[in-house]
Amino acid sequence: MAERDDIVIKVRGLRNSFGEQVIHEGLDLDVRRGEILGVVGGSGTGKSVLMRTIIGLQTPDAGEITVFGEPTIGRDATEAVDVRKRWGVLFQGGALFSTLTVAENVAVPIREFYRRLPQALMDEIASYKVVMTGLPADAGPKYPAELSGGMKKRAGLARALALDPELLFLDEPTAGLDPIGAAAFDQLIGSLQDTLGLTVFLITHDLDTLYAICDRVAVLADKKVIAVGTIDELIALDHPWIEEYFKGPRGRAAIAAKGEIGELASHAATAHAPRDPTEIDAISTGQHSQGDKADAHARSEPGTR
Ligand SMILES: Nc1ncnc2c1ncn2[C@@H]1O[C@H](COP(=O)(O)OP(=O)(O)OP(=O)(O)O)[C@@H](O)[C@H]1O
Prior knowledge:
Oligomer: single chain
Structural class: alpha/beta
CATH class of the domain at 34-58 and 78-86 and 166-295: Alpha Beta
Shape: globular
Strand content: 15-25%
CATH architecture of the domain at 34-58 and 78-86 and 166-295: 3-Layer(aba) Sandwich
Bound molecules: adenosine-5'-triphosphate
Distance between the termini: 40 Å
CATH superfamily of the domain at 34-58 and 78-86 and 166-295: P-loop containing nucleotide triphosphate hydrolases
Helix content: 40-55%
Number of strands: 10
Strand order of the largest sheet: 6-7-8-3-9-10
Largest sheet: 6 strands, mixed
Radius of gyration: 20 Å
Number of helices: 13
């Protein structure tokens, strides 16, 4: 029983198609409680369709999906309301409503699930979420058109966090951000995950994000998840796409940058002997405190969009 509880998302035998085009066939995937699972794959391999299917926006031809043990396929929004409240979603590009302010956007899911909540309380929750994602407090009354790309992502994240979810779906959260903005966003996700104990399903093309914050990575190819594991485990596999992805020029750049951070950490160790030796281990090997690491190098995003 305990083992089953540790799997937050379970996908079995998934098949999705659009007309003649089969996107997924026999796709299986487990997402464990408390992990950040990176989902990678070439453009058009069906990462977003997989996410949409898991959250019930796309009905598959076949297969079974449970989230927190609850089936999500074929259940309408009202039936699945209890499980839908437990997740938040950041869609590709943020998907903010352009006619609503940031605060109103953040309040959308609150209004959807808790209609009777007094307006003042809704406003208070919205402003708290805005600040929590690192936006200035005065961003609340602004419209999406008045925000930078990075601020829009943060606003989208604030909306995804509106209901204090246990599970977060992020579709290419760092796409379109400059390297510093992307690293800062990784750091934000990593620290929110750490603090709130979230489980995160994160679609990305960004190798730096994988190295900085993901516990495991699932690779989509040939209509299914062909491998799931830590980056080291994946690199050890003999698969041409995985090899090209992680060992290609950008993969090598990300690994080199990772090495540089290790060196930085050991310099720091010599310069300031830490009172607690685990301090250094946390810098060189930690998963969730590595947002800092991403700040220190240029990002390596494969040109596979
Ligand atoms: N509503 C739809 N109708 C028809 N085809 C669709 C629909 N949604 C997605 N597709 C097709 O399904 C395939 C997978 O799309 P999806 O957006 O999941 O890819 P992806 O792996 O997320 O790609 P990218 O990395 O470029 O974002 C694509 O060929 C896409 O054109």
